[in-house]
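Look over what follows to help learners.
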Amino acid sequence: MSANVGNVARGLKAAVSNPKNSEEAKDRAQQRLDEMESSGEAHSEDAKMAQVKQGHKANLNNPNTSEESKQHSKQVLDQE
């Protein structure tokens, strides 16, 4: 899958819980989410690494983190 699996899963979860979505749309989203979870796609190593990468990117933009922490995040992202 070319999209970030974690983002897809979060979008599906949001669709399921959105009261403005039709029951049909909620059912389709839940079915796809169930498929992702049963296949292990939602818990794949790629999904985990994408989350780690997102965390480091967020750290770089967080004004409350130390320069040392930002430097570490930059090193991790440069190694990717």
About this structure: The helical segments are 5-17, 23-39, 45-61, 67-79. The chain has two domains: 1-42, 44-80. The mean pLDDT is 87.
